[in-house]
Design brief:
By secondary structure, the chain is of the alpha+beta class. The protein is built from three helices and eight strands.
């Protein structure tokens, strides 16, 4: 993967019920926490060894207190926007991400075939 990355800014997103999420990116993950630092959700996508500009979505996690509010879908959307901007190719291990990519033709353009 290229050591130089384009700057990517995450916008606040609103979930069902009007809950505002601020997403952060660090070390091949996108996540959000509450005001106390408790992890509410994350999507993890490490680099594929020896394959330039390719990541694998290993997992999408949503804290049980946030389930059913659309957070997993927002994490996948944030990942898609990031990967698209960075010019990444994507492999999927996470069942949730696989389903989301299957259901969204726009996402499929990033798949490493």
């Amino acid at each position: 993967m290229s050591p130089l990355r384009k700057k990517f800014t995450f916008n606040a997103q609103y979930l069902r019920g009007g809950i505002q999420m601020n997403f952060q990116h660090e070390n091949n993950r996108i996540y959000t926490t509450d005001q106390d630092g408790t992890l509410l959700g994350e999507i993890v996508f490490p680099n594929v060894p020896d394959v330039a500009d390719t990541v694998v979505v290993e997992r999408t996690f949503v804290n049980p207190i946030m389930r059913g509010q659309g957070l997993a879908a927002q994490l996948v959307e944030q990942f898609y926007q990031y990967a698209k901007q960075q010019g990444l190719h994507v492999q999927l291990l996470c069942p949730y991400a696989k389903k989301a990519f299957d259901q969204n033709p726009d996402y499929q353009q990033l798949l490493d075939r």
